[in-house]
User: What shape does this take?
Amino acid sequence: MNTVCQSCAMPLSQDPQHGGTEADGSTSTEYCSYCYQNGKFLSPDFSARQMQTFCIAKLQEKGMVKPLAWLLTRSIPRLKRWRHA
Assistant: This one.
């Protein structure tokens, strides 16, 4: 099982829904509920860079300084969702 969402790099343990959902309603072990529901990505047109920018902004909204937010999101382009893109 992955420990971080393979789309946004959020620790799955931090997901209030404990993961997104597959088309059959089962819990996804790869993606969080903020990125993936009912077997589909909620932002299907995002690029890896757009996802990173979005996540940095969300972390800053929660009070994190930008350099730390960047550090936590720098792995996004290497995650499963983006490797084939």
User: Anything to note?
Assistant: Residues 48-61 form the longest helix (14 residues). The mean pLDDT is 95.
